[in-house]
Design goal:
By secondary structure, the protein is mainly beta. It contains one helix and seven strands, in the order ββββββαβ.
Length: about 110
């Protein structure tokens, strides 16, 4: 679970820009990530390469909303060592490098 503080000025729709690196390699040729906010689906992502990716989440919100509680469900976790991407043996789904909240422009 990831809690993201939001400003009321982002209402009625916030936009979260994310930069992430999916863990793909070795026995995992594809990584799927589903994103939920308060149990409601926001996104379903599919990755096939181990490279930095940019994604945008649009989040409907009321002015009194101050936190977006996001849940990322990863289909396959793999360690960087097993993927050939480092020596770390802890299994992960992706590395989140950047998250920027903004007001949606559409």
């Amino acid at each position: 679970m990831l809690s993201v503080p939001l400003s009321a000025s982002l209402a009625p729709r916030a936009e979260l820009r994310l930069e992430l690196v999916p863990m793909v390699g070795g026995p995992v040729g594809e990584q799927r990530v589903r994103v939920f906010r308060d149990g409601l689906p926001l996104a379903d992502w599919r990755f096939t390469t181990w490279q930095e990716e940019r994604r945008v989440l649009e989040i409907p919100m009321k002015a009194e909303d101050t936190v977006a509680r996001l849940r990322f469900v990863v289909a396959s976790r793999i360690s960087p060592a097993a993927a050939g991407a480092g020596a770390d043996h802890r299994p992960v789904g992706f590395a989140l490098r950047l998250l920027v909240p903004d007001r949606a422009t559409r």
